[in-house]
Amino acid sequence: MNKIKAELVEIKNKDDVNLLIFKCKGNFIKVITLEINFDIDEANLFFKPTMVSISKEKCKTSIENNLKAKILSIEKGEIFSNIYCKYNDEEIEVIILNESVNKLNLNINDEVYLMIKASDIGVSVD
C-alpha cells in the first residue's frame, strides 16, 4: 500500500459527498470521501499500487491527480511488473502489465507521471 503524508488545505461539500484537497510538496492531491468524521490538518493518503496509472507525458485526462516522479527500479514478473518510483521524498509502487512497460518503453531513471483517481485514495490520521 502506498502512503503519502499531506496537508489538508480545503474541503468542499455537497450533500454527503466531500472533496478534500491536500497539498504535498507543492502538488495538490484531491480525494473524494463520503464521510468526514475527523478534524485534521495533516493526513496520510493511501492507495493500492494497482490503482496507479503511469505515463511518460503529462496527459489531459479526467484523472485529477498527476504526480511527477522518477523510476527507481522495475521488477518484471511473468505477467506484471512492480515499478518503484520516487515522488519527492516518498517511494510509490505501481503495478502494471509487462506489455504496458514494453509499450511505454519504461526504464530506470525515466521521469514519469503517476495518475491516481480521487476516488481511489483513502485518508487516515495518526
From TrEMBL:
Pfam families: TOBE. Residues 61-121 form the Transport-associated OB type domain. Gene3D superfamilies: 2.40.50.100. This is Transport-associated OB type 1 domain-containing protein.
